[in-house]
Amino acid sequence: MELGRYLVRELGFEDGVDTLGRWMSHHLAELIDKAEHGKTEDERNQGQKEATETILRIWEHRASLPGKAYPLKSYENILLVLDRLRPDNDPFAYYHGDEKDRLASNLFIDMSRLIPILLLMKISQIDKPIQIDPVALDALDETEQNIMMTILKWMELFEPTSERTKITKKGNEKETGNDNYKFDRLALKIINDLNITLEKLRKELGEKRQANHKSQAQE
């Protein structure tokens, strides 16, 4: 019943939810009302059976629900990217035959860190729910709960604190505190690393090209 009330709220009052979502919300609300306020005990028992079956059927298809009734809905894109950009998917991991391969591997690893951070910044600005309803969280399966908690822990890690910026005694210089854990600072750090690696790779390719030209000229 608690999960049903959660679905009624999310499907019925979320801005932008389509007609089907509002109909589902209204239908669930009627079933729950019948289960709780039926005139006879038999009517209430029958209402509870119908409501429970309907709620569970809807929840089975939670990934397709309109609005944000499914807690992981906002994170579909980032989950796809994270899966494809895992550092252990490094295509150069088994081909470290020379410096070029090593630098290419470094590029992949840094990009596999940078892209998810940029996506998390987007979620932080737009899609991050203020609070996940515990009823919905409890109704997720174990894998979904682990994913949800991992994402929320990542988001909390980069949350700004209320006392992050302070004026020091030396003048107008600001004390950054935990700024190293902000998305933008971390992204910039990785971008700097990427620039260094790219410069090394450019130099490596340039030197190899010059060596090849020299070898061809001698032949």
Order of helices and strands: HHHHHHHEEH
Residue windows where pLDDT falls under 50 for at least 5 positions: 160-181
Beta-strand segment tally: 2
- The helix tally amounts to 8
Main pleated-sheet profile: 2 strands, antiparallel
Estimated structural class: mainly alpha
The strand line-up of the biggest sheet is 1-2
Write the topology of this structure.
Blueprint: H1 2-13, H2 19-37, H3 41-60, H4 76-84, H5 99-127, H6 134-139, H7 142-157, E1 166-167, E2 174-175, H8 183-218
Antiparallel strand pairs: 1-2
Helix pairs in contact: 1-2, 2-3, 5-8
Q: What does this protein structure show overall?
A:
With 219 residues, this protein is an all-alpha fold. The chain contains 8 helices and 2 strands; from the N terminus they run H-H-H-H-H-H-H-E-E-H. It has a two-stranded antiparallel sheet with strand order 1-2. A hairpin with a 6-residue loop joins strand 1 (166-167) and strand 2. It is rod-shaped and about 100 Å long. Residues 160-181 have low confidence and may be disordered.
